[in-house]
């Protein structure tokens, strides 16, 4: 059984979440534009948090 590293930083977790939301938004856009827009806005908020954390470091 494979285990992911438990020592991910919060920045890495946010980057993974951003990637997940953008992929989901892209795949959802074909079927439901409004839902895709909501996912895209959530991804944008995560991206802003990533940028904020990167400027703090």
Low-confidence stretches: none
Return Rg in Å.
14 Å
Could you spell the SSE succession in H and E letters?
Answer: HH
Please report the distance between the alpha carbons of the first and last residues. 35 Å
Largest sheet: none
The level of helicity is over 70%
Classify the oligomer.
single chain
Helix-and-strand structural type: mainly alpha
Please, how many domains? Answer: 1
Classify the beta-strand content into a percent band: under 5%
What is the approximate shape? Answer: elongated
Write a brief caption for the model.
The chain is an all-alpha fold.
Characteristics:
57 residues, mainly alpha, 0% strand, 2 helices
Structure description:
This is Lacal_2735 family protein. It comes from Croceibacter atlanticus (strain ATCC BAA-628 / JCM 21780 / CIP 108009 / IAM 15332 / KCTC 12090 / HTCC2559). The chain has one domain (10-56). The chain has 57 residues and is mainly alpha-helical. It contains two helices and no strands. It is elongated and about 40 Å long. Helix 1 runs antiparallel to helix 2 (33-56).
Write the layout of secondary structure elements.
Blueprint: H1 10-29, H2 33-56
């Amino acid at each position: 059984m494979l285990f992911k590293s438990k020592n991910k930083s919060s920045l890495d977790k946010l980057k993974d979440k951003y990637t997940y939301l953008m992929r989901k938004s892209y795949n959802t856009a074909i079927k439901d534009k409004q839902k895709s827009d909501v996912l895209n806005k959530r991804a944008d908020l995560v991206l802003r948090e990533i940028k904020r954390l990167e400027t703090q470091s």
